[in-house]
Amino acid sequence: MGIAEWRGKLQRGEVSARELTDRHLARIESVDPTVHAFLEVTAERARADADRIDAARLAGESLPPLAGIPLAIKDNLCTKGIRTTCSSRMLENFVPPYESTVTERLWSAGAVLLGKTNLDEFAMGSSTETSAFGPSRNPWNPERVPGGSSGGSAAAVAAGECLASLGSDTGGSIRQPASFCGVVGLKPTYGRVSRWGLVAFASSLDQIGPFSTSVADSAEILQVIAGADRRDSTCLTTAVPDYRSALEQPVKGLRVGLIRECFEAEGLDPQVKASVLAAAAQLEQLGCELVDISCPRFNDGIATYYVIAPSEASANLARYDGVKYGLRAAADAGADNLAMMTARSRAEGFGDEVQRRILIGTYALSAGYVDAFYRKAQQVRTLIRQDFDRAYEQVDLLLTPTSPTTAFRFGAHAEDPLAMYLADLLTIPANMAGLPAISVPCGFDDQGLPIGLQLIGGVLQEARLLQLAHHYEQAAAVMAARPSASLVV
Prior knowledge:
The chain is of the alpha/beta class. The protein has 17 helices and eleven strands. It has one domain (1-489): Amidase signature (AS) enzymes (Alpha-Beta Complex).
C-alpha cells in the first residue's frame, strides 16, 4: 500500500501510527543485518512521534498529510540532536544543533523518523562501497551493490524497511540506486527543494529528492518538501503546484524524445536497452508520440562533471581541518604542529575516494590550470544545457535508460575508478543542466535484477514528469510481475 492508502487507514483508525511504526521497526530488525541500509535506527524517537500522532487523532485533531508515515533520511541531511555522519570518520560524532529544511517540513507534516541511512562517504560514489561504516547491500541480491551514493535510502525502501526515504542527487545519486533497487527515485529541478542543512558536496549540482515504491508516493513527499526557503539563496520562489492532482491528467499527445546518444552509448547492456525501448513502446500505446532526438554533448557530461564536482568538493571540504570541523588527529600521531595536525586529520578522517576527488578538484582550481579545466568545463556545461533547450523545442519530455547496466557485484570496479564513474553516464547531464528527472522500474535482466527507465523534464516540469511516470507505472505494472527475488524482498 502507498502513503495515501495508509493515510486513509490511519485517519479511520483501522491502524494506529504506533502499529505502523512498530511494523517497520520489526522489519528493520529482521532484514537490516543483511541489507545494512541504516547507520542509526531511532526507535525511541519513532515511537514517540507515532504516539503523538495517535493522541492527536484520538483528540479529534485534523492530521497533517504525512501523519504517522514512517520515513528514513540519508545521513548527509542534518537532523537536530541525531548524529549526521555522511558515512565518514571525519563526522563520526557530529550531532547537528539544527534541523535541515526538508526534514523540518517532513516532521511538521507528521512523518515519523525511523533512522538515518547509509551512503557513499560525503555522497561521493556510485555503489555505497565507500562508506566508512561498511557497504549497504542490494535487497534483490545481497552480492550486488544497491548503487550510490544514496544506496542506503534506496535499499531501505526496496526492502520494505520504510514507506519512503530521502536522498541527495549530485550526479545521479537518487536515480541510479533507484534503478538498481527497483524503486522510484526523483531528482527535482535545482532549487525546487531547499538545500539548507544538506552537507555540501558540489553546491551547484546537489539536490534533494524522494525514494518510494510508487510515483504517487514520490509526489506526496515532493509536495511537502518543495518550496521557497529564505535560508537557501539558491532556492526558487516559484509557487509549488499540486503534484498529486497532476498524476491523473491525460498523457495522450505528449511528445517523448528518445536521446539517440544514450542508446548508442558505449557499455550499454543490451538487456537494459531492450527493456527501456519496450517501455517507450508502452508509452506510445498510451498515446504519446515518440521522437528521435539528438543531444550531441550528452555523453560529454561525465567528463565535465568530474572537473566541476571535485572542484566544488575541494572548496566545500576545505573546512574540515581538525580545528573548526571534524576529526582531529591525536598529538601522538605526529600532529605536533598546526600544519601536520591538519594534514593528519584529513588523512585519517577522509577515505580514499574523497581524498581522490579533493586532489582532482584542487588541481583543477590551481593557478595555471583553472582556465584549462574548471572554466572550460563550465563552458561545456552551458553547451549541454543548450542541447536540452533545443530538444525541448521539439518534445515535452526526454527518455533514456537510468543506468547503462543493472546492479554490479561488490568490488567489480574496486581497481578501476573510471569504470565506477561511468555508472553515472546517463544521469549526470540532468544535474549539469539543473533539470528534474525520475527513474521508474521498467523490467528485469536475466538475473532477476531491476532495470530503470529515466524521464527528464524541462525546468520546473516535475508535475508533467510525475504524470507520465505514473501513467507508465500503472499501465506496465512492472513490479507486480517481478520474478522471484532474494531472501530479503
